[in-house]
Amino acid sequence: MRVLLFVTCLGDTLFPATGRATVRVLERVGCEVDFPEAQTCCGQMHLNTGYAREAARLARRFARLFVGAEAVVAPSGSCAAMVREHYPRLGVDGVPPVYELSEFLVRRLGIEDVGAYYPHRVTYHPTCHSLRSLKVGDAPLRLLRRVRGIDLVELPEAAECCGFGGTFAVKQAETSAAILADKVGSIIQTRAEVVTAGDGSCLMHIGGALSRQRTGVRTVHLAEILASHDGELAA
Questions:
Q1: pLDDT at site 231
Q2: Which helix (DSSP H) or strand (DSSP E) does residue 175 occupy?
Q3: Which of 42, 117, 147, 168 has the most CB atoms in a 10 Å sphere around its CB?
């Protein structure tokens, strides 16, 4: 299957390793991956802050760039949800099918074992958009359970928000920090070495708190765990 990668703004500017890992996983399961270099933001941040007209322009651009794709895959539940949920409301037609990585692998391709090896104690945070908007369900956990060497531990109160919410974390900083404190407390309870998720934005938010508190817990995107194998482990 030919797949187009939507790497997202955050992946492009801050976490390029996530995009590269996504390509490695997709190619490992037999996909041909192309990357439209002219891609930009999906418009989620603009829409969330009340700039619907600007968001619609970005949405129309996205539709033009990815037109005709059999599948578009993004390592971000929130960006995939933006395209699927909000583009129709913005009046944008002709948008190809867009998937978050784990739902594409499990729901579209029917694959749970991607040949990964990751010998670390890991807990999984289900991000709000992947859980509530995309309804990916247990697809990420199915993939993680098939990773060889992993010690996967359940996260208490897993479905609770991490407090990021894009510009919410800036505009409502105190509330965001209180929500984040609860999430970090739950992560520490697991005694995990690594917390993973399908959204780099949530991992950035959680990772900041974990680092400031010197917990020793790292954040690693789901794609990077799935791309790891014996002899080439994610850092």
A1: 53
A2: helix 173-190
A3: 42
Task: Indicate whether 57 pLDDT > 70.
Answer: yes
Q: Do domains 2-108 and 121-227 have the same CATH topology?
A: yes
- Rounded CA gap, 195 and 210, in Å? 10
**99-153 confidence digits (pLDDT tens):** 999 999 999 999 999 999 999 999 999 999 999 999 999 999 999 999 999 999 9
Q: What's the whole-number mean pLDDT along residues 18-43? A: 96
Report which DSSP code applies to 117: B
User: 121-227: which CATH topology?
Assistant: Rossmann fold (3.40.50)
Total residues found in the chain within this entry: 235
Q: Does the 2-108 domain belong in CATH 3.40.50? A: yes
Whether the pTM exceeds 0.85: the reply is: yes
